[in-house]
Write a structure and sequence with these properties.
Number of helices: 1
Length: 67
């Protein structure tokens, strides 16, 4: 079983809706659930709010919450 989420504006690099979206899936594994981005495991290192996205990248972040 997989849950598919199309994400182009939430995950880095910062994309617009006109860019090519990257397929994001949540798949069941023998150990639980795994988030995949572009078919590869994805570990969220992110923030929320209106903080500087450039600062997020500078400190190794890869995701931000928009709402």
């Amino acid at each position: 079983m997989a849950v598919t989420i199309m994400a182009s504006t939430v995950l880095l690099p910062f994309a617009t809706l006109a860019d090519n979206p990257v397929r994001v899936e949540v798949v069941k594994t023998k150990d639980g659930w795994q988030l995949l981005r572009g078919g590869k495991p994805y570990f969220i290192k992110g923030v929320g709010g209106d903080a500087s996205r450039a600062l997020l990248v500078q400190f190794g972040g890869n995701s931000f919450r928009v709402a």
